[in-house]
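Hello Y.,

Per our agreement to keep a running log of every chain we model this quarter, I'm adding this entry. I've kept the format consistent with earlier entries: sequence first, then predicted structure.
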Amino acid sequence: MVIFTSICSNYLHKARLLAESVKRNIPDAAFVVCLLERELDSAITASPSFDRVVLAKDTWESGDFDQFIFKHSIVEASTAVKGQFFRYLYKQFPEEQKFVYLDPDTYVYDDFVELRDLLDSHPIVVCPHILQPGNIDMELSSLAHGVFNLGFLAVNRSEEATRFIDWWADRLSLYCYDDKAKGIFTDQKWVALAPCFYDVVIFKHRGYDFATWSLFECGMTEEDGKYFVKGDPLRFIHYSGFGGVLENCIKNWLPEGAHPFKDLYADYKAKHIESDEDNVSKTPWSYGCYFSGTPISNEARIAYREHHYSPHLTINPFDQWDDLFLSAVEKASSADSKVSLLAKAWRVLRHEGLGVFIKKIFAKLRG
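Predicted structure for the entry above:
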């Protein structure tokens, strides 16, 4: 089994904890880190629990990684490369049959016994955010952010899984943004379509992908050092929203007093602090600035996202400061609008004939 996570350097401390928990509980698994930085810093990335640390740009099959990554915020970027990284792992581990993605803020508590069995005969496994009605806040959130949580995804080596990964990776290469108004939330909303297209198992074991959104009436118990969620043995917890968000959910959704999850969270929090003793969480993102060192604004990323195919924007976007870049985008936009008008005129002329074209021109002039 190959398990991987996708991070920028500021999440290395989380990835260290995840890797240690994987090696402790799933010792036969290889743990691989996909790192979204320009260079590898061995002093930072070295960890005895990492089997490999791979730069995302080194897995890219086309030569436009800078153009691709410039379009994304740090969170969008970390998710946008996941599909391509699955492709990379298929090639790098030709003998492996099972591949699992886990978000870096995950901690493994036991071997993935049930998942191993599932992947023997099923190509794709996903977990829903919630498994019972009643928490309307999370029901609304699932509608907005995606029914399935892509902090976990498992596939085997099969033609069906490969078809799914190829489809998903292609969609992420074009549309992996936090743009809920357009129906997109990073990589998650796409996979709501996956059960319609592919042979997908919706895994309802409560011990997998237990997370912040699972706390409401969760029924977690502890017996002789082992943890269960309504009878299902706990396999891993996704500490999404670690800190204030998660602690607020603990306050609102768990009963007062002692609770098994509170103990687990306190232990993870202590480990989390220890893992960040070198302050790696403060590491700036190397794709967060132009080559000059000037920070890139979100406005510049969005503008480039919408116009980067214009022939007026052939430069590497990291070469430009915001003012120069946005100025170039405005010029490209103006030029594109002129080209668009000419294209519309040509379509009318070609499909409707010269007479109709002239009538429309005069109608436009009179209007």
